[in-house]
Amino acid sequence: MYIRKPRISRCPVLSLLALALASSVALPALAADPACLVWDPATQSWVANPALDTNQGTESGVENTTCSASATTSGYQNNASGSGNAYGWRNFVAGTGSSAFGSSNSASGPFSNAFGYLNIATGTASNAFGYKNDASGNMGSAFGYMGEASGTGSIVLSGWYDLNGDGVWNPGETSTASGAGSVAVGAAVSASGEAASAVGVGSKASADYGTAIGGFNTANGMLSSAVGYTNTANGWGSSAFGAFNVANAQYSSAFGYASHADNIGSTAIGYMAVADRDYAVAVGRTGGEQQIIHLADGTQATDAVNLRQLQAGNASALAAANAYTDAKVASAAGTAADVALDAAKSYADAGDAATLASANAYTDAQVASVAGAALGGAKDYTDVREDMAAGDAATLATSKSYTDTSATQTLASSRTYTDQKFAAWNDQFTQFRSDLDRRLGHMDARIDRLGAMGGAMAAAALNTAGLPGQNRVGVGVGMQGGRSALAVGYQRIVAPNASVSLSGAFSGSERGVSAGAGFSW
């Protein structure tokens, strides 16, 4: 006999309801149902209670069990108590207003929902959708593949990432949200802190209010953030952005590639920068210094100074130093000359007085005895006086020559010392400018790459919006500042009112990934 193959609905919920309706028409409820299973909160397990009537509620299908008048079952071997609803195959519901759809799902919490296969919803108003998800936290929701939402109000959208490459599931390879109000989206991510968020692949937010976004990022400090790839934020209020960056201390920040901020309030920026002093900003490291380029002139007392300002200040300081040196040397030379001249004059005057007194005494003594001798003595006196005058002139000339030589040597030594000091300062600031130029050049290139990646992701998303079909793939390119990027995205329509997506972007050494999910009702 030819039997027409029924058309399978694309909506699993509608198909399940159709199956339930068909079962209610074709398969009347049987009396020989399995015993009632009642949820035991103490042991967190289903316990058989043979004393209860198995046909108290509304049933349709085969071997269904309703353990209360308000319970509803449809399908095969479903078990419902309280005011729960079980549809499909071997689903179990026990809570007030709880529902289970699919196969082997369990909804034991009040107002809980379990949809799919092997899902468990034990928390009040909890939701578990997909495959083997566990929503044990009150108001918690677990979607996808083996996600765990154990925190109050937590949300997890889980996929599987094979961390060790063995091809089988291992603990830690799916996502968990155990903190109150925490959110975990992606594969192998965990959000264990209160209000913590972990998004991507392998990222972990273990501290309260921590955020880890991207691939294998870790936010261990309270209020910390790690965004990018393999970044770690350990300090309270710390931030690590980029790739392989580490922010260890309180309020520290690390940006770029493989940079470290190890001290309180420190900031490390760029390629392998190390900030190892409190409240300091580093753009390089010891032995790997880098430049900051295109720096505007400082206007306030605490602003950074560029080389142009420094050279202008050096020139002004040098001019002032030279003027001061010249004035001091001139003053010293004039004082020394005056002292030497006064000393020579005093010496000559004293010599003249002594010589004159001796000559007069000698003349007076000789005049009394011989007139001829007096005349000879007078002549001798005249000769001695001329010799003394010549000695005075020679003494004055020697003093002036010594003073001039000393002043010239002092001035030359001062100028040489000043020139050497300012030459050394100029070399140091030239090196500083060169390092700063190179470092900021790296930063400009990275900013352009990130901008190009953002444009590429936006282009990929725009070109998939509204396209028909369950699977959508978008490709986008972007350019900024001479840098180009490529983005590829995939979207899966898992139901008419639900979709999930994953996308990535690449530009040079920069990479980014994003994931998302959407639901409507």
Q: What report would you give on this structure?
A:
This protein is of the alpha/beta class and 521 residues long. Among the domains are: 1-99, no CATH class; 307-442; 460-519, 2-Layer Sandwich (Pantoate--beta-alanine Ligase, Chain: A,domain 2), CATH 3.30.1300. Helices cover 32% and strands 31% of the residues. The strands form four sheets. A 16-stranded parallel β-sheet has the order 3-5-7-9-11-13-15-17-19-21-23-25-27-29-31-33, with helices on one face. A 15-stranded parallel β-sheet has the order 4-6-8-10-12-14-16-18-20-22-24-26-28-30-32, with no helix packed on it. The relative contact order is 0.05. The model is unreliable at 1-30 (pLDDT under 50).
Total E-strand runs: 37
| Sequence of strands across the biggest β-sheet | 3-5-7-9-11-13-15-17-19-21-23-25-27-29-31-33
Rg (CA only): 48 Å
- Helix/strand-derived category reads alpha/beta
Q: How much of the sequence is in beta strands?
A: 25-35%
- Overall pLDDT metric: 82
Uncertain parts: 1-30
Distance between the termini: 42 Å
Features:
elongated, alpha/beta, 16-stranded parallel β-sheet, about 30% helix, disordered N terminus
